[in-house]
Structure prediction request, 191 residues.
Amino acid sequence: QTLVKLIATITKGDATDTKEFSIYIGEAQTFDIIDLYDVISGRTVTLEGVILGMSANNTVSIQDETGAIALYGTALGKDELADIKVGDLITVTGKKDFYNGLHQIGRFELVGEKAEGTIPAVVNLDEIEKLDDETLLPYQSQFVTISNLEVVSVKIDDYGSVEMTLKRITDGETINYKWDNRVDYEEKDEL
Prediction:
């Protein structure tokens, strides 16, 4: 894609105003997922990854060998969305977005045929020194595990979604955890 700057001068009577707009034109560029973190919101992109799981509001997480990202607000119909499953290797095109710290691709569409993929290994975060946004960014939307945490606070909203603050026992570092009640998993009753 090519970034093009449009300059519009609008006149009505004696009033004149000039505005600049920057837009990308041409075919959507294909990116490795980790490189999408540096792409501006609103740009149309293409990416490939293995479906890790589906969560609330038609959100799907996919991962390639460089990272993972959330796909939301699909342009797919219910039948098409129901036809993809965890472990499928898919190629999608959609608009890069960023919401509440989450890098994501919105209004995604499947490009080409799905194939059988391999679900990546779970990443252990026990050796991560800091549990801050910058340090954890490369692990966003991936399967991760972390141990030796203590529950500091729990909040359950009116819909049954759970938010927790967890503290690492060894150094006091904290991390927030949220489970959306629309996401089904086997151990949810233990929350």
